[in-house]
Amino acid sequence: MDFRSQATALDALAGLTADALIVVAAGDALPKNFDAALSELVKDAAKLGDFEFKAGKTLSLLRPAGVKAPRLIVAAAGKATLKAARSAFTAALGQLKGRGAAHAAVVFTGFEAGVESLAEQFVLAAQDASYVYRHTKPSAPAAGKLAKLTLVTDKADAEAAKAAKAGLARGEAIGAGIELARECANRPGNHATPTFLGQQTQALGKSHGLKVEVLDKKAVEKLGMGSFLSVAQGSDEPLRFIVAKYEGAAKTQAPVVLVGKGITFDSGGISLKPGAGMDEMKFDMGGAASVLGAMRAIAELKPKLNVVMLIAACENMPSGHAVKPGDVVTSMSGQTIENLNTDAEGRLILCDALTYAERFKPAVVVDVATLTGACVIALGGVRSGMYASDDELAAALSAAGETALDPCWRMPLDDEYEEGLKSNFADVANVAGREGGSVTAAKFLQRFASKYRWGHLDIAGTAWKGGASKGATGRPVGLLTHFVLSQVKTGR
Ligand code: BES
Ligand code: MN
Ligand code: ZN
């Protein structure tokens, strides 16, 4: 998709050259200084009962009188928020689906959000609508003919053109990151193996100038990652521990470290999951996919700070070699862990990655994981669960989520939640009771993240969608990218 911006007088929109003109409007009327021909058409449609300025409503006209573009789509957003703008634009794109337009010119009017944010979401909405998974389904039909989108800004607004440019660039970088994350996560477990994730990272390193290191079992043994190794030991698919570094500031500057859970298939292991829906556990590397996607976006946006990405990748499988309930393993931190449920494997691979992160003397570490079904029960698919060791970090993650329209919600870390993790046979057990499952998982991780500021995102509900539109969402690439960008200003 080709994205551009163009400044025009608001009363001259009818003269724009494009296959389709899309007007996305907030509020209950078009502004007074808006193009007269367009305003008349909209008023007329309202009179006929064909259009209302209400969220979700669209007006689609062919060869509208007085308009140069052969198609006009007006999409009402209702509210003036960024989120409403994006949904209305998505609805307008839906109207163009299956039609012949290759180039659409788009104008947003009446929104409280700045041009930069609108431009970013304009790109992301279009990217989202045009992505089609085809790696193992080459017959999948194309999303549509649309190949070029022009964001039209108000000529009277001197700052708008510059803001649009910056927003488009950020949208394209994040959009490419989201697409990479979706593509990796959508690929089935027999394709998206730990080896594949290592190769994808190597490829990203080459194309985007990242330093990449892919460690195999031998190297992981040498590091003493007994917990990570115990999860991988039931599978014939070799594990990988993947390290990528983006250097955008002096080497002495403490980096932001992003850690991803990369379980490329979670059968539950000996504590086997039920069969129904188990296929969706190919998405259990959604955390890894999202940190990889965020690295891509960061490498394109080139912020002035250092970022390290860590991915622990393996399968969780039952076999004669598999770790058993009751087994006790020694983590890289030295803490022993009793495995009471082999299906609580995510925390067992992350804890060693969190210990590994210490060597970077990080400014902050954020891990991302499809960690618990309990988080899906708590927050559904709207907001990711967010945990943070301090309020400032929580606020930064929260703000990043809102700005990116990739929201999260802070969850508690009271020490009382740790009670259930006590074990008679090890320093800690890998599961507590059923209650507060997302929180107890976070409490487990926190034991391994005491040496730095730490954030944790439980994306079990947000990383993918089930049902007819089953597929990876690419979340939280947007949140992570905005979070990393926000860390530049604070000088950390
Ligand atoms: N990958 C799952 C979490 C998950 C489950 C994500 C369903 C999305 C949908 C994780 O490894 C897991 O199995 N967690 C267990 C933990 C339990 C055994 C304490 C869970 O949530 O049931
Ligand atoms: Mn599991
Ligand atoms: Zn899992």
Can you tell me about this structure?
This protein is of the alpha/beta class and 492 residues long. It has 2 domains: 2-160, Leucine Aminopeptidase, subunit E, domain 1, CATH 3.40.220.10; 176-490, 3-Layer(aba) Sandwich (Aminopeptidase). Helices cover 35% and strands 22% of the residues. It is built from 13 helices and 19 strands. The strands form 4 sheets. An 8-stranded mixed β-sheet has the order 7-8-10-9-13-17-14-15, sandwiched between helices. Strands 1-6-5-2-4-3 form a 6-stranded mixed β-sheet, with helices on one face. A 3-stranded mixed β-sheet has the order 11-12-16. Helix 7 packs antiparallel against helix 9 (346-357) and helix 8 crosses helix 13 (477-489). The radius of gyration is 24 Å and the shape is elongated. The model has no long low-confidence stretch (mean pLDDT 98). The structure holds ligand BES, manganese (II) ion and zinc ion (ZN).
